[in-house]
Amino acid sequence: MDYQAAFESAVRRVRAEGRYRVFADLMRYKGQFPRARWRRPDGDVRDVTVWCSNDYLGMGQVPCVVESMKSAIDTVGSGAGGTRNISGTTRYHVELEASLADLHQKEAALLFTSGYIANEATLATLGKILPGLIIYSDELNHASMIEGVKGARCEKHVWRHNDVAHLEELLKVAPIDAPKVIAFESVYSMDGDIGPIKEVCDLAEKYNALTYLDEVHAVGLYGQRGAGIAERDGLMHRVDIIEGTLGKAFGVMGGYIAADGAICDAIRSMASGFIFTTALPPALAAGARASVEYLKASHHLREKHQERAETLKNRLRDAGYPVMDSITHIVPVQVGDPVLCKRISDRLLEEHDIYVQPINYPTVPRGTERLRLTPTPLHSDEMFDALINALDDVWEESAAAGDSGLASA
Ligand SMILES: *Cc1c(COP(=O)(O)O)cnc(C)c1O
């Protein structure tokens, strides 16, 4: 086996499809978000505006968050020094879990090192706890849920995206006393649409299923206290397990579930991805708690965020750009070709100091490649002007160049 050749040929295939990933080397300026310093591959350095961050409200730079992280480091040092069970649980972890349980109005919450791990570990463990479990998973669920469902090693059914009639067809044929979990998301992060939470909860009641809702792209952003879409729509008490991240709108890092005490206790006791890993650094837990508490009381930021997203969609549509049908803060602009998508993104960065990462397969289906814009409350009207001027400059030309470029590729 020529290992070197195997790895190189794997990368060649990715390149040939136009989806080789190049990471932008960035330094955000605290206090000036969304401005950042970008280092080009040749070492040249330049200031850019970031248009694709999941730090949706700029919480990563808010003084109370930054200061509580610094103060935690000054008090207890850097790492947790152990798993949660073996010396790694600190006061900061305990307080953060209480803050999250309160956010979602559940008896308990359980922290994980990321939202990815929260999904993977929790769903896989439900398969261990509930013998004969059947999982019903929305077809557009995030990769971390898909891995969790696989790890559950149980019967599974994939329901067509947001299609509750299809979900019911699948539920109907299962034995009524079989344990069932319906796993779905509130805000789908690439299209900006929303899962039918009420209808899914109705079906869950009718067929005696548990509901598992990923609110990763909604926590901090929706609801009177930032608990997500289920809070906004008055449905939080009907969802059995709510999963969220501390790395996106909360601006720090980590993931969690919030649920009944018995559920959290069972996952805590049995989930490999919870038990056998070092606890989050205390400073992250402190920063996340400060952010969660700050956003419980900062509804004006959510309103400003919605206004910015709405205004950007309208401005792009008025200028003739194919904004996809998002009903949330996500502003996806369809390009439909991976090479073209990357070319537009490269030119925005190189020629206009605008950074928006191209979103290509496998993050989205082939043929739906896009620019995914995430305006924050800190994106000004002047930044909107600059974005639209830049798009006017690169859009048509890149598409025209794309024809010959693709033909010769
Ligand atoms: C990003 C994401 C996750 C994972 O969260 P992290 O905290 O970044 O690991 C889970 N679910 C969805 C829908 C996501 O987009």
Offer a concise description of the structure:
It contains 15 helices and 14 strands.
Bound molecules: pyridoxal-5'-phosphate
Show unreliable segments: 404-409
Largest sheet: 7 strands, mixed
**Structural class computed from helices and strand pairing:** alpha/beta
Strand content: 15-25%
Q: Overall mean pLDDT score?
A: 96
Q: Give the neighbour order of strands across the main sheet.
A: 4-10-9-8-7-5-6
Q: How much helicity do the residues have? A: 40-55%
Question: Span between N and C termini?
Answer: 30 Å
Can you count the beta strands?
A: 14
**Number of helices, where a helix is a run of at least 4 consecutive DSSP H or I residues:** 15
Broad shape: globular
Please trace the helix and strand order, writing H or E for each element: HEEEHHHEHEHEHEHEHEEHHHHEHEEEH
Specify Rg, calculated over alpha carbons.
Answer: 22 Å
Notes on the structure:
It is a single chain. By secondary structure, the protein is α/β, with parallel strands linked by helices. Helices cover 45% and strands 15% of the residues. It contains 15 helices and 14 strands. The strands form three sheets. The chain has a seven-stranded mixed sheet with strand order 4-10-9-8-7-5-6, sandwiched between helices. It has a four-stranded mixed sheet with strand order 1-2-3-12. A three-stranded antiparallel sheet has the order 11-14-13. The two termini are 30 Å apart.
